[in-house]
Design goal:
Layout: H1 10-18, H2 23-30, H3 34-65, H4 69-79
Helix pairs in contact: 1-3, 2-3, 3-4
């Protein structure tokens, strides 16, 4: 025989998720197992967390609109995929000038053939 189902308010589950409560915290609040919360209220938890995410984004955008340089940079990096520019590296290269002579000079830095 299974245990009697505990009366858990779905609206309250969603509201707890909206303020950032974890599944474990919600389960502790209602004094039930975490699996019970997930099994019976997955949709409410998902909606609550989506609401939290939207509110946080709204607040971040407002902070950026008020001129928060840190928030503008962070949003640029995360939402617009902007990043730090890679510094250009000096490329090493060798210039070879063909003089028509097939010999190898004793001093390659001299730049000319002794023949």
């Amino acid at each position: 025989m299974s245990r009697p189902s505990k009366n858990i308010n779905a609206v309250q589950v969603r509201k707890l998720a909206e303020i950032g409560a974890t599944s474990n915290e919600i389960a502790d609040f209602f004094e039930v197992d975490r699996a019970t919360i997930h099994r019976r209220f997955a949709a409410e938890i998902s909606k609550g967390r989506a609401g939290l995410h939207m509110r946080l984004r709204r607040l971040q955008l407002r902070a950026a609109e008020r001129g928060s340089a840190a928030m503008l940079i962070w949003l640029g990096k995360t939402m617009l995929r902007q990043g730090e520019a890679e510094p250009e590296q000096d490329a090493e290269f060798t210039v070879v000038i063909h003089t028509g002579c097939d010999c190898v000079p004793e001093d390659p830095t001299a730049g000319h053939c002794h023949h």
